[in-house]
Structures are given as structure tokens and as C-alpha cells.
Amino acid sequence: EKKVGFSQARSEIRGDFVLKPNMPTFTAPGDVFDVTVEVTNTQNAEHGTKVSLEADGLEVIGASAVDLMLKPSRGEVAKFKVRAKDRLGESSLAFLASSGSLSRRI
Asked: Given this model, what pLDDT does residue 11 score?
């Protein structure tokens, strides 16, 4: 006796926010440059959202956090100014968007 089966399921996986960073791949010691991150609200409600930047091996010049008002399914851009420190080697940036119990970090 031969049997054939079939199953189908649907799932949707998404975070509270979608973060799309934009930054240079390479910098030299002392370089000053802008980094941006587009933050998209995936929720069905408007949210006041805090977007912050953490840097390792780089110095954030000015504010390391900004407040954005995100409409449902819409995005806004947060802009930060950064300076490369004098040491050579890898550096990293981490972006965090948060609003109440909602958050996303990359």
C-alpha cells in the first residue's frame, strides 16, 4: 500500500521595527562621517521611537540618540555623526530602536 501526504502551513515572522543602516565600509583614523539608519514601524499604530547608536572603536560626535515619530508601516531616517579613532582595526556600530515594550537591535 502506498500513501501520499501533503501539508501546508503559513507563518509570518517579523520584528517590531525594520532597521536598515547606511555607513561606510572603510574609514581612516580621524575620518568624520555620517551614518544613518532607516527605521520602519511594522506595527499598526503610530509610535514615538527612540533610536540610539553605540560605537566600539569609533566616537559618536553629538547626540547618540534621537526621537522619531513613526507612522504605521512607514519609515524615518535617524542620522548620526561619527569619528574614526586613531587605532587601526575593526570597529562596530549597533543601532537600537525602542518604544515601550517594542524594540529591535542590530
From this structure: 54
